[in-house]
Amino acid sequence: MQIRLEGLRSEFYREIELIASLFFEEVKVTDSLEEQVQAVLQFQIETGNPVSVGVTLTDEKGEQKWHASHQRAIEASDEKSYRKRLKKVISYAVLQVLQQATGVIQPWGILTGVRPTKLLHTMLLNGKTIEEASGILAQDYLLQPHKIEILKEIVERQHAVLPDLYELDRKVSLYIGIPFCPTKCAYCTFPAYAIRGRNGSVEEFLAGLHEEIEAVGSWLKERNLPVTTIYYGGGTPTSISVEQMDALFTQMKRWIPFYDQVREITVEAGRPDTLDPEKLDLLKRWQIDRISINPQSFKEETLKLIGRHHTVKETLEKYQLAREMGIDNINMDLIIGLPNEGVAEFKQSLEVVERLRPESLTVHTLSFKRGSIMTQNKEKYRVAERDEVEEMVRLAREWTQANGYVPYYLYRQKNILGNQENVGYAFPGQESLYNIIIMEERQTIIGLGCGAVSKIVAPQTGKIKRWPNPKEPQAYINTYRQHITGKLQALDEVYGFEMPMSV
């Protein structure tokens, strides 16, 4: 979809693309009169205070027109703040005119970011009541009532689970990235490399990771920084051998200070084909608090189509085995909108989950992530339409309420079907602390291993600095020492410590 823009400065073009992408695929905006376009957006903007924005949308043939306008008082102390608020007014008017033209009401209004709960937290921290914040979400951001309600529920639940959520900035959490899987799923863009035939690089990678654990652990000990949560992700951490897992846990306990005070340790065991009695026994002996066994779907044909390479039967057997071996906090993931799946198939998956009753259920909506096999071969995969996706999201909400689950974290992604969201549900008291912390960005998370991104949150100010590790195992093996040095220097700078330690 190519749209010509008239009467708008180029600094606002990106906002128009983001809003238009909620309605159309592969949106590109231009101001060229030479290029063929499918629509024209004409802007009339009166700056000042209040600011007024009018938008007229004309179709390709010039036969139909739609118009919307919005006026808003802007409080801004400088030019940068003024432009930021002006973008919201422009987005508001564009959303209105596109909703008129298409008949599609966007549930999240003008929000295109990943973390809508963070916006609500920020308003509450700035002194707004929950009622005032809800009004702003409805009036200024055009959120639909059911989305505001789930945000309110989640924020309330997060405060119940983590009463000190706003005071965690002098502690850290750790993410350990293990970049191996049995196979790579078609929808996945995480660092996930088929482990078969990689024995040498696995050992080299783990040697580097052990060194990184020692360096980060020493840094934490010297600076007296305790760890709140530890999360082993990837990839699938349980892809490595039981001996390698045991050595990894041993290294963590040896070097991470105040290890016995860590509130939660999670291990992603998302692929059931990586689990066996020995690994489950190891997880139990190491007192891992929470694991994930992720079916994504309980339809055999779907698992084959998306490259999961395990069966429904195997998922059920490994889940039962984990229960028999005393694992008492299990998360499961389902994905709404997988190829050839609609409401009927999603209901069937929920019926299976109802029999299993995992402590938490994360319901994702399929996203066409750039770089995934599915996105690169879109024509091969038939997925649900917007209305059907919306119905499945509603069904998940009703089903979880009826079965005693509460929503406790939420995030969104680009190119997500139906402009919906991913929601983590759990039985009260079984929520993942790490998931709350990473979504609300109130605490530094230090990433170790492949593809791990450290998000360094400055105490008091909350300003975030990102420090990514290499995604590919060989790149990590070749450069991990340089990345350790740079990361610890960045941490020292943000936390105001003196000379960084050498590695």
Automatic annotation (TrEMBL):
Give the Pfam families listed for this entry. Radical_SAM
Q: Which SMART domains match?
A: Elp3
- Tell me which Gene Ontology terms the entry assigns under biological process: porphyrin-containing compound biosynthetic process
Q: Which GO terms describe its molecular function?
A: 4 iron, 4 sulfur cluster binding; catalytic activity
Q: Which residues form the Radical SAM core domain?
A: 166-402
InterPro entries registered for this protein in UniProt: Coproporphyrinogen-III_oxidase (IPR034505), Elp3/MiaA/NifB-like_rSAM (IPR006638), HemZ (IPR023995), rSAM (IPR007197), rSAM_horseshoe (IPR023404), rSAM_sf (IPR058240)
Name any GO cellular component annotation.
Answer: cytoplasm
Q: Which domain of life is it from?
A: Bacteria
Protein name (Swiss-Prot/TrEMBL):
Oxygen-independent coproporphyrinogen-3 oxidase
**Species classification:** Bacteria, Bacillati, Bacillota, Bacilli, Bacillales
